[in-house]
Amino acid sequence: MVNKGKNSFHRTFFVIDFLKQVFRDEKKLLTLNEVKYVHVPHYDELSVKKFWPIFQEDETFMAYMPNPSLTQRIPEREYFWNVANTV
Question: Which contacts qualify for 15-21: CB closer than 8 Å, 24 or more apart?
Answer without folding.
Answer: 17/66, 17/67, 17/70, 17/71, 18/66, 18/67, 21/66, 21/67
